[in-house]
Amino acid sequence: MSDYAFDTLQIHAAADPDPATGAVQVPIYQTTSYAFKDADHAARLFNLEEVGFIYSRLTNPTVMKLAERVAALEGAAGGVTCSSGHAAQIMALFPLMGPGLNIVASTRLYGGSITQFSHTIKRFGWSCTFVDFDDLDALEAAVDENTRAIFCESISNPGGYITDLPAVAKLADKVGLPLIVDNTLATPYLCRPIEHGATLVVHSLTKYMTGNGTVTGGCVVDSGKFDWSASGKFPSLSEPEPAYHGLKFHEALGPMAFTFHSIAVGLRDLGMTMNPQGAHYTLMGIETLSLRMDKHNANAKAIAEWLEKDPRIDYVTYAGLESSPWHERMKTVSPKGAGGLFTVAVKGGYDACVKLVNNLKLFSHVANLGDARSLIIHSASTTHRQLTEAQQIAAGAAPNVVRLSIGIENADDLIADLDQALSAATS
């Protein structure tokens, strides 16, 4: 399958006809459990001596097909789906971390991710250092003997900034650490982080991958290229696992070690399982991903160009603009376009932002992004509310800024809606 173009893979990857019925769409296996052939079969499954289905907290045929399709689109060896993008981040870190260990993450992240890394992971005994990833010297200096991963977004939320993935991956390789990339905003259609050197890729499948605001889900896929045994820093993957009678995941499973550990240990104990109905909706969404992303790109570029020229706007952060400091980087990291999300600084500050949000008719005021419909939110008072003012500014969520997630409606209609709302906001 890997020889096919993206447009073909998004429909045909992991989509063999159902063996029982011949159904060409992946069936929804709405079940909690699966009958064993006999007692020996059950024992082999529980010992990881045979691959199969035990209980839907671990694996489910519908959910498994979704993980396989995302892995195929990302060029990954394997993957695991889970209940949300936030769950995917914990799933990615879980096999790598332990009490007293840390990660180094970009300052340009979704506000919820910054909160998760600043506060919640401390309850596991983990910690995070935030660094401007455009400063590679500072990034390298932040890595210490207890660092176990480097984390960034390919295209950042909310500003739409492009991370220099090849440079960051080169540094991660130099210090012997896995690079984890959140590819939610780019999707594998615009950017495939593994091709730039990433080890793990996480997604909030809730966003562009599903594309219609109906599902919460997440996914982690693994390049299969990282040597988990070389440094001795990742004992969960390289050392004997007591619960499986001394199985060494990396030694036994090679490039699939991370994926199998995430299922057999991660989903077993964390229980961050995606439901089969949600997986079905996401599979349906992925079939049109390239078509939708092309439209998101075209609309966002047209609207960003219009806004950039508008005297009521201070600045626009869209990397698809030739004036953007990330435009040249986009050509390497995300050559098909900068995606559908960016921020706009409105003259008049916070009060003007509030009036803009309240006067729009086509844009929905919601905390989601990547929907078929256009969305708007004031990040500093919502998605990035738990951050300090300095963190908000570093992330691209200043008080005078609104985040736009451009949908697939008619661009002229969206521009007209923004025009009338800006008039109300700045009059």
What's the total helix number? 17
Secondary structure tally: strands? 12
> What is the fold-level CATH name, i.e. the topology of the largest domain?
Aspartate Aminotransferase, domain 2
Overall CATH class of the largest domain: Alpha Beta
CATH architecture heading of the largest domain: 3-Layer(aba) Sandwich
Structural class by secondary-structure content: alpha/beta
As a percent range, the share of helical residues equals 25-40%
Beta-strand proportion: 5-15%
Major β-sheet annotation: 7 strands, mixed
Order of helices and strands: HHHEHEHEHEHEHEEHHHHHEHEHEEHEH
Average per-residue pLDDT, rounded, comes to 96
CATH superfamily membership of the largest domain, which one? Type I PLP-dependent aspartate aminotransferase-like (Major domain)
Ends apart, CA distance between termini: 56 Å
Q: How many structural domains in the coordinates?
A: 2
* Oligomer category: single chain
InterPro entries: Cys/Met-Metab_PyrdxlP-dep_enz, OAc-hSer/O-AcSer_sulfhydrylase, PyrdxlP-dep_Trfase, PyrdxlP-dep_Trfase_major, PyrdxlP-dep_Trfase_small
Cofactor: pyridoxal 5'-phosphate
Pfam families: Cys_Met_Meta_PP (PF01053)
Keywords: Pyridoxal phosphate, Transferase
Please explain how this structure is put together.
By secondary structure, this protein is of the alpha/beta class. It folds into two domains: 197 residues, Aspartate Aminotransferase, domain 2, CATH 3.40.640; 138 residues, Aspartate Aminotransferase, domain 1. Helices cover 38% and strands 13% of the residues. The protein is built from 17 helices and twelve strands. The strands form two sheets. A seven-stranded mixed β-sheet has the order 1-7-6-5-4-2-3, sandwiched between helices. The protein has a five-stranded mixed β-sheet with strand order 8-9-12-11-10. Helix 5 links the parallel strand 2 and strand 3. Helix 1 runs antiparallel to helix 3 and helix 3 packs parallel to helix 12. It is globular, with a radius of gyration of 22 Å. The model has no long low-confidence stretch (mean pLDDT 96).
